[in-house]
Design goal:
The structure holds three protein chains of three kinds. In chain A, about 35% of the residues lie in helices and about 20% in strands. Chain A is an alpha+beta fold. Chain A has three domains: about 110 residues, Periplasmic binding protein-like II (D-Maltodextrin-Binding Protein, domain 2); about 140 residues, Dipeptide-binding Protein, domain 1, CATH 3.90.76; about 210 residues, Dipeptide-binding Protein, domain 3. Chain A is globular and about 70 Å long. The N and C termini of chain A lie far apart (about 60 Å). In chain B, the strands form three sheets. In chain B, strands 6-7-8-3-9-10-14-11 form an eight-stranded mixed β-sheet, sandwiched between helices. Chain B has a four-stranded antiparallel β-sheet with strand order 2-1-4-5. Chain B has two domains: about 240 residues, Rossmann fold, CATH 3.40.50; about 70 residues, no CATH class. Chain B has 13 helices and 14 strands. Chain B starts with 5 loop residues before the first strand and ends with a helix. By secondary structure, chain C is mostly helical. Chain C has two domains: about 70 residues, no CATH class; about 220 residues, Orthogonal Bundle (MetI-like fold), CATH 1.10.3720. Chain C is about 75% helix and about 0% strand. The longest helix of chain C has about 40 residues. The chains are: A alpha+beta, B alpha/beta, C mainly alpha. At the B-C interface, helix 4 of B face helix 8 and helix 9 of C. The complex binds adenosine-5'-diphosphate (ADP), iron/sulfur cluster and magnesium ion. Iron/sulfur cluster binds next to loops of chain B.
Chain lengths: ~525, ~350, ~325
């Protein structure tokens, strides 16, 4: 009897296995006009004003269009919803001309009114995003609105924001602000939907979870939590309906599984961060195409200059420590060449970037000499923090520790979980930190290098640099401005506040069936309406 | 002449143990005629349970049964398990010593009484229920409807044993093996159960093999008795003869210490279980260490089971019914025995 | 029965309160804050203040805790600090996938372990028993993550038989086969350890039961092997198994979290990890309460099942 049962079970298992293997042979190829892209995580919000993570940013870029966009190679601002603009009064006023006949996905016209409304939301006292304080407070009347507006709605007016007519928006600034044009790469919200919603409630509003009314090349059709988002092409998109009809944004946290799904034809694109170790294998696969492009972010090893009584207060010590790491080797060995050594705060693609500019090259002997001259021949100890899970940064930390030990400096590495890392970095509870920095499209150095900036975490302060940064902000002429930034870079690098490690390339893996894939340094889905799938 | 209902030839049970095989039962032969009530008596550990379980090949997987068991002329030990099952519960019912542990704690007693009928007679549970109720009331259980739904732990010891008996009788077997049916009970209950068995005996044409360590219990019910010691039958005979004239020294000691109907765990002088493993079994007579009449020859070879006296009617058969396994009664040994040691 | 219930419910309440308080304290002691997600907010401390104020995070801790407790008692688990969405909704969106995976795995592991365990016990010491025993040794010690990756490599990458990620093929009509194909590997991964674990107990339990006297009785009645096994052996062997299963469920759940990650299964796992990492207090609180609640519930169910299998047990 027992034997009979065992036999039945065995037969059942065999039958099941056979059934699966037969049905398994024809793994589905995607129908034409369908693109499946992978993501490591789910978006949190689909409201462009509250985006704080890359997954939300990616999906928002399908659904919403911005006023302007930066070019993927020159980073210059290019027309989007706004097709033409004028900068007058020596950079104080911006006259933005919207395309005619723009529509929200519900057929309502998309006008300068919506843009003005969105700017008011961002300047509203109840707004909890960062845009006001980073970008828009220089608008005339913005500060007043932010401090004194006493309605919970984003109604009323900001003096410097004038809707001339349906298609024209005039923005007036307190004073010229060179990077301001790049701040206009924001996506407007539909006033006819959100105009009556208190600003404090917009973040948690249904619209932020499921925007019914959008402006981008794709419309949200389905969202299976942590599984996929399905988007269909917007037939009324101002550049014409996108070529690819359907996009599945598949959430696959397991990187290896992403690759296998791509190779098996269940995915057409892995838009970000293909593991470098896998790239070599993939390049041999004729069905897979590898793309890479520089990004506007760099990793650095920063010296904490806020802490008193540490050797890092001394510029010479920092300079010495800047000479010990072989960054070329780091890029070759750890990044497998997918990146470039960086020598200062200006990154490639930004217009002031000077490829000739070089900072310290590795010279252990000189470093040791300097340390002796400054009286640290007996060495000292430093605490280095790095966030867990970033293999490249952890390796960089190890390489630095190794190099430092050769000049008598003992580096104690602390690998911290993300939140603990953020807390330690904010409280300045470290000597050395390995972290990353996004620079943005504009070369403006204010946020990271001005002595008064709250984002200047390392505590770098040099009056000359402050002066140069302020001067550059009001210099509208590009070549002139570039020259100032290069000067500032010289000064900053000479002060050695950090070791610029590298700018990493983004590596994308796509099916060879995908055409016109042209990733932007900040957005893999750049001009997605032009993409095609064979 | 009627044929015996059960004929056992040279039955042996070997238990596999760490130390090796242990012969719990060795070379037992006997017959039971229809309607006969036969006692099997011996102290604890003498192999009574092993012998009675082995009749239906019910010993645990570690016990190997040898010899032949003919039931109604069929050698049931050579039957495949599938066919042997048809005898268990249907032709031969078994009552066990410890009703608490031999009843399944998670099934109602109703189910446990009904299931052999459902199994063997292929009748519905409803039909089986009728008979189960009848059986329970026959056993003197009042309120049998309610009892059917109860679980063993809810019942008293006496009722449990009655349930056991109902279970064994469910399919009206032709032979009932009752392995110490009264041992676990107190004196009054013992008496009741014996009365019950006596009634059953009178009412049904069933034969009974009554296993007990208590000669008194056996005297109440049996026609004939077999005395077991150390896995061997050492004496057989009619119950009255045995009491009147016990031959084997072991039987004699049993009869002597069994003056009344008293349920004290009586003991022989000497150790309790005669042997715990093979190497302890002595050459010669197995009873020698405890025998008051032991002599040199007793240590040499084991005496055989010898017929004593003439033939007589046993059940419906004319046969030797007095047998004893002792050198004192072997051919030509009687005189020697008279000499002092 | 009632006193038993009220005592158990009283215990459960104490446990749940303790869990919630502990979670609350731990979350507040751990470094970090949910608004760290946007480092640029530091540029604007008043926005952070406003952000906290809107979510009542500016209140003293004990006030926060008691208002959380009060809302929870009314069935309101609050709003996620990260997703700005009711925590209850976040949970309900993810529970079904996790239940599907853990439920199937529990079922599969029982379907595997009961026959194998019984077989093993009945044929104790045989060649197949030894094969099964070595499987249980291996099965218990294989890490889910490793096994999952191995299966993906074999069945998805090498043979291309089964998908490597997700719960269904996107963009396809509903198809049961498709679901089963996606379910197969994660279920195997999650079942192996449980099955191995259960087999040991089934084997030991059945072995114990078949030594019992009442099994001799059952055989003496001439019952068929299957009847003996199902009616007499398994019912008794089920008793300890119930306890084992209820104690094992939290492990199954933990295992599911890892398995979900490996197979990109859209269950609770990712949310739990991300909520913890991003210090999404309301989510973490709700998750811990829910898990504690389920564990208590399973224990209660196990006790009741136990009583229904074993008539000797009465709860007072
Ligand atoms: N399952 C078993 N395995 C090993 N030895 C056993 C087993 N059952 C009984 N025995 C041994 O066989 C002998 C006879 O036992 P048993 O038949 O139970 O005696 P009785 O029923 O006369 O008390 C005893 O010595 C006992 O230890
Ligand atoms: S053979 Fe000897 S030892 Fe055995 S019972 Fe007879 S007298 Fe005693
Ligand atoms: Mg016995």
């Amino acid at each position: 009897m027992i034997r009979k049962i065992m036999l039945i079970i065995l037969v059942l298992i065999l039958v099941l296995l056979l059934a699966f293997s037969f049905s398994g042979c024809n793994l589905e190829q995607s129908p034409d006009g369908q693109l499946r892209v992978s993501s490591l995580g789910s978006p949190i919000t689909l409201n462009p004003l509250y985006v704080r993570d890359s997954f939300s940013a990616e999906v928002v870029s399908f659904l919403f269009e911005s006023l302007l966009k930066s070019n993927k190679e020159t980073l210059e601002m290019e027309p989007a919803l706004v097709y033409d603009w004028e900068i007058k009064e020596e950079g104080r006023t911006y006259l933005l001309n919207f395309r005619e006949g723009l529509q929200w996905s519900d057929g309502e016209p998309l006008t300068a009114q919506d843009a003005a409304f969105t700017l008011r939301v961002m300047c509203h006292p109840d707004f909890t995003g960062h845009q006001y304080s980073l970008y828009f407070h220089p608008i005339v009347g913005a500060v007043e609105y932010h401090l004194e507006h006493d309605s919970s709605l984003a109604d009323g007016d900001i003096q410097g924001i004038e809707v001339i007519d349906e298609d024209t928006l005039k923005i007036t600034l307190e004073q010229a602000l060179a990077p301001f044009l790049s701040y206009l790469e924001f996506q407007p919200l539909p006033e006819h939907i959100l105009g009556e919603v208190p600003v404090a409630e917009i973040e948690g509003h249904q619209f932020s979870r499921w925007p019914e009314v959008t402006s981008g090349p794709y419309l949200l059709e389905e969202w299976e939590v942590d599984e996929y988002l399905k988007m269909t092409s917007n037939q009324d998109f101002y550049m014409g309906a996108p070529n690819i009809e359907e996009i599945y944004y598949r959430i696959i946290p397991n990187q290896e599984a992403q690759l296998i799904e791509l190779i098996n034809g269940n995915l057409e694109l892995i838009p970000t961060a293909v593991k470098l170790e896998d790239v070599e294998d993939l390049e041999e696969n004729p069905e897979v195409e590898i793309y890479s492009n520089l990004r506007l972010v760099y990793d650095y090893l920063g010296f904490n200059m806020k802490r008193e009584d540490t050797p890092l207060q001394e510029r010479e010590v920092r300079r010495a420590l800047s000479m010990i790491l072989d960054r070329e080797a780091l890029v070759e060995d750890v990044l497998l060449g997918y990146g470039e050594v960086l020598h200062g705060p200006l990154v490639p693609l930004q217009f002031p970037y000077d490829p000739e500019f070089e900072s310290f090259s590795p010279d252990l002997g000189r470093a040791e000499e300097i340390l002796e001259e400054t009286g640290y021949e007996d060495g000292f100890e430093l605490k280095l923090i790095v966030n867990a899970g970033n293999q490249v940064r952890e390796n960089a930390a190890l390489m630095f520790k190794e190099a430092a030990s050769q000049v008598g400096v003992e580096v104690n590495i602390q690998v911290l979980e993300w939140q603990a890392f953020l807390e330690a970095s904010q409280q300045g509870n470290y000597d050395l930190i390995i972290s990353g920095q996004g620079t943005g499209v504009d070369p403006d150095l204010t946020f990271n290098w001005h002595s008064q900036s709250p984002l200047n975490e390392l505590g770098y302060a040099n009056p000359r640099v402050d002066e140069l940064i302020e001067e550059a902000l009001v210099t509208m002429e590009e070549e002139e401005r570039a020259e100032i930034y290069r000067q500032a870079q010289e000064v900053i690098v000479a002060d050695a506040p950090m070791i610029w490690l590298y700018t990493r390339e983004a590596v994308h893996a796509a099916s060879s069936r995908l055409d016109n894939f042209t990733p932007h340094p900040e957005n893999a889905f750049y001009k997605i309406y032009q993409w095609e799938i064979e | 002449m009627e044929k015996p209902l059960l004929e056992v030839k040279d039955l042996a049970v070997n238990f596999k143990r760490e130390e090796g095989f242990f012969k719990a039962v060795e070379g037992i032969s006997f017959k039971i005629w229809p309607r006969e009530v036969v006692g099997l008596v011996g102290e604890s550990g003498s192999g009574k349970t092993a012998a009675s379980l082995s009749l239906l090949n019910l010993t645990s997987s570690r016990g190997k049964v040898g010899g032949e068991v003919f039931f109604d002329g069929v050698n049931i030990l050579t039957l495949p398990e599938r066919k042997l099952k048809k005898f268990r519960g249907r032709q031969i019912g078994v009552i066990f010593q410890e009703p608490m542990t031999f009843l399944n704690p998670v099934l109602t007693i109703g189910v446990q009484i009904m299931e052999p009928m459902v199994e063997h007679w292929k009748i519905s549970w409803g039909q089986a229920r009728e008979r189960a109720l009848y059986l329970l009331s026959e056993m003197g259980i009042k309120d049998s409807e309610r009892r059917m739904k109860e679980y063993p732990h809810q019942l008293s010891g006496g009722i449990r044993q009655r349930v056991m008996i109902s279970m064994a009788l469910a399919c009206s077997p032709r032979l009932l093996i009752a392995d110490e049916p009264t041992t676990a009970l107190d004196v009054t209950l013992q008496y009741q159960i014996i009365e019950l068995l006596r009634r059953i005996r009178e009412k049904t044409p069933m034969a009974i093999l009554l296993v007990s360590h208590d000669l008194e219990v056996v005297r109440e019910l049996c026609d004939r008795v077999m005395i077991m010691y150390g896995g061997r039958i050492v004496e057989t005979g009619g119950i009255r003869e045995i009491f009147k004239d016990p031959l084997h020294p072991y039987t004699r000691s049993l009869v002597e210490v069994s003056p009344s109907f008293e349920r004290v765990a009586w003991r022989l002088p000497g150790e309790d279980a005669p042997f715990s493993y093979q190497s302890n079994i002595p050459a010669g007579c197995r009873f020698q260490h405890r025998c008051s009449r032991v002599s040199r020859e007793c240590k040499g070879a084991e005496p055989s089971l010898k017929e004593i006296g003439g033939k007589g009617w046993i059940g419906n058969s004319f046969s030797f019914h007095r047998q004893v396994r002792c050198w004192k009664y072997q051919e030509g040994a009687l005189e020697k025995d008279e000499k002092p040691l | 029965m009632y006193p038993f219930f009220s005592r158990r419910i009283f215990h459960a309440i104490i446990v749940l309160l303790g869990v919630s308080l502990l979670t609350f304290v731990m979350m507040n002691l751990a470094p970090g804050d949910p608004y760290h997600l946007d480092p640029e907010l530091r540029f604007n401390p008043e926005a952070v203040a406003r952000w906290k104020e809107l979510r009542q995070l500016d209140q003293p801790l004990h006030v926060q805790y008691f208002s959380w407790l009060k809302n929870m008692l009314q069935g309101d688990f609050g709003i996620s600090l990260v997703h700005n969405k009711p925590v209850w909704e976040l949970m309900m969106e993810r529970v079904p996938a996790t239940l599907l995976l853990t439920g199937t795995s529990l079922l599969v592991s029982l379907l595997i372990s009961i026959p194998l365990g019984v077989f093993s016990a009945l044929r104790k010491g045989s060649f197949w028993d030894q094969v099964i025993s070595s499987f249980t040794l291996g099965g218990v010690s294989i890490p889910n993550f490793w096994l999952g990756m191995l299966l993906i490599l074999f069945f998805s990458y090498h043979f291309k038989w089964l998908p490597a990620a997700g719960m269904r093929t996107v963009g396809m009509e509903f198809s049961l086969l498709d679901y089963l194909k996606h379910l197969l590997l994660p279920t195997v991964v999650l079942s192996v350890a449980s099955a191995a674990y259960f087999i040991r107990y089934v084997r030991a339990g059945v072995w114990e039961v078949i030594q019992q006297d009442y099994i001799i009785t059952a055989r003496a009645k001439g019952l068929g092997d299957m009847t003996i096994l199902l009616r007499h052996v398994l019912r008794n062997a089920a008793l300890p198994l119930i306890t084992v299963i209820s104690l094992h469920l939290p492990y199954l759940f933990t295992g599911a979290m890892l398995t979900e990650y490996v197979f990109s299964w859209p269950g609770m796992g990712r949310w739990i990890v991300s909520a913890t990492l991003s210090r999404d207090y309301p989510s973490v609180m709700a998750i811990n309460i829910m898990v504690a609640f389920l564990v208590t519930l399973f224990n209660l169910v196990a006790d009741l099942l136990y009583a229904s299998f074993d008539p000797r047990i009465k709860y007072r």
